[in-house]
Amino acid sequence: MKKAIFIDRDGVIVKNVDGEAPKKAEDLKLNLESVPIMKKLQQKGYSIFVISNQPDVALGKINENVKKALLKKFRELLRENNISVGIYYCFHHPRGVIKKYQKNCDCRKPKPGMLLKAIHDYKIDPLKSFIIGDRARDIKAGNLAGVRTILIDPENSEKNYLLEYKVKPDFTVNKLLEVTDIIIIKENS
Questions:
Q1: What phi and psi values does residue 7 have, to the nearest 5 degrees?
Q2: Exposed, middle or buried, 95 (CB in 10 Å: 0-12/13-18/19+)?
Q3: I need a surface site. Which of 2, 119, 140, 172 has the fewest CB within 10 A?
Q4: For this structure, is 27 an active site residue?
């Protein structure tokens, strides 16, 4: 069975714009710290998967064409940096204004549906895998899927949400650059 790294997109791989996911393809930029980390982890034999809630169409913030343009730009940026990833998005939101995306699904984090699908689709060993995220919902999804969890929380802003979700990350870091050492040390222990 394979080992994998599941990574949240917005705020981790991609830079947020005014605290939110980019709303235009030209605003979508990779967090420069994420590129060498993903490359190094791929060299160590990890498959990389982006696991991300993307409810902006459901919420009426962007349209289908913008959604497609954002996905295309994201794939282009990864390809330009020689990074191969599997992408699992949840476009649903229970309070969405677009009917086809308005539902309480099993894939929207903190539910583990996207992780479980990737684990099944690619024969991933959850015990050898990690999720990296900047929200308590990433940690909850990781816990439910049985993978180890790393929270990036430099300002301790997720403290109340961790209590609300009743979860504790396996590791908490201040910077994305710290995750590689954690993963490599745990892999060798």
A1: -130, 135
A2: exposed
A3: 2
A4: no
Residue 184 token pair: 């490599």
Question: 151-160 contacts: CB < 8 A, separation 24 or more?
Answer: 152/11, 152/12, 152/176, 152/179, 158/134
Torsion from C-alpha of 47, 52, 58, 62, nearest 10 degrees:
-90
Residues 90/109, Cβ–Cβ less than 8 Å = yes
The predicted model scores a pTM of 0.94
State how far Cα 5 lies from the chain centre: 9
Radius of gyration of the chain (CA): 16
pLDDT digit string, tens, across residues 138-185: 999 999 999 999 999 998 899 999 999 999 999 999 999 999 999 988
Q: Which of 8, 56, 138, 153 is catalytic?
A: 8
Catalytic residue among 10, 56, 134, 153: 10
Alpha-carbon span 16 to 10, nearest angstrom: 6
Which tokens belong to 99? 């009917």
* Domain spanning 4-157+172-187: CATH 3.30.70.2580: no
- Specify whether 10 is catalytic: yes
Helix (H) / strand (E) containing 131: strand 130-133
